[in-house]
Amino acid sequence: MILRAFLFLIVVWTLPAMGPWQDCEGAKACDLDGRSYHIRVPDDWDGDTALPVLLHFHGWGRQGDLIVKHQRISGHTRRRGVLLIAPNGRGRTWDFWDQGSADVPFAAAVIEDVAKRFPIDRDQIFVSGYSYGAAMAWRFACENGDGVTGLLAVSGTLRQTERCPQAPKHIRHVHGFADTVMDFPMGAGGDVTHPVALWRKALGCAAGRRLPEWQVVSFLSFERWHWDNCEGGHTVTLDLHSGGHFIPHGWIGWQLDQLMGRVPLYP
């Protein structure tokens, strides 16, 4: 009798850590209508609290299994109570060049499928990506962004002449001047703010302002431009650095902290 009671208590105590997600968490992909995605549950989740979400699009030639173990991505989400979702692109890439991409409804369906497995916080849905994945994140935000809290794009954009019927509440983009993979989209006359010209026009932003330089790690500093005068309470933020094509240390976590009203920390 004592043994049975003890085993019952073990089962009860472990219930919060169990759920319908266990069959495809981490490196094992979750299947969805012939396609797939990966998830990473945050550390110390109680199994009940609604989770903020970061939907991250991988770079060219990659898959979501890399994202859920990437220290500059999942290393930040898992410490912040954020559920990381990493969809897999067909052929290890994304169709973002033109409107009507099948990857947009697929990614939207991924979020809804995740919502069947987890309690998610619809007021804190963030979309990010790196390189080709950043351009895909832009495409998703452009066509399905009205319910997105923040776009966090790293070293990849759409053409700034695109027309976007939807937009996230907050747009944050980071790009290096020395990027030779997804070249820095310099504007006419050396306009360094051109990488976010699309959003500034679409959201009716007035003149921006340059904020003091900031840094997460000692070896990389950012020049920050910010527009908080856009229509409907939207904001646009652009971080620039002297480096090339990479995800800056701590950048994703820093943005999540700020947009969720927390003191920014590293990592």
From TrEMBL:
Mind listing the UniProt keywords for this protein, alphabetically?
Answer: Carbohydrate metabolism, Hydrolase, Polysaccharide degradation, Secreted, Signal, Xylan degradation
Q: Which Pfam families match?
A: Abhydrolase_2
InterPro entries given in the database record:
AB_hydrolase_fold (IPR029058), FaeB/C/D (IPR043595), PLipase/COase/thioEstase (IPR003140)
Q: What does this protein do?
A: Involved in degradation of plant cell walls. Hydrolyzes the feruloyl-arabinose ester bond in arabinoxylans, and the feruloyl-galactose ester bond in pectin. Active against paranitrophenyl-acetate, methyl ferulate and wheat arabinoxylan.
Its family remark reads: Belongs to the faeC family.
Give its localization: Secreted
GO process terms (BP): xylan catabolic process
| UniProt name for this protein | Polyhydroxybutyrate depolymerase
Query: Where's the Phospholipase/carboxylesterase/thioesterase domain?
Result: 114-187
List GO terms (cellular component aspect).
Answer: extracellular region
Taxonomic classification: Bacteria, Pseudomonadati, Pseudomonadota, Alphaproteobacteria, Rhodobacterales
Instruction: Provide any one GO MF term from the record.
Output: feruloyl esterase activity
Organism source for this protein? Sulfitobacter mediterraneus
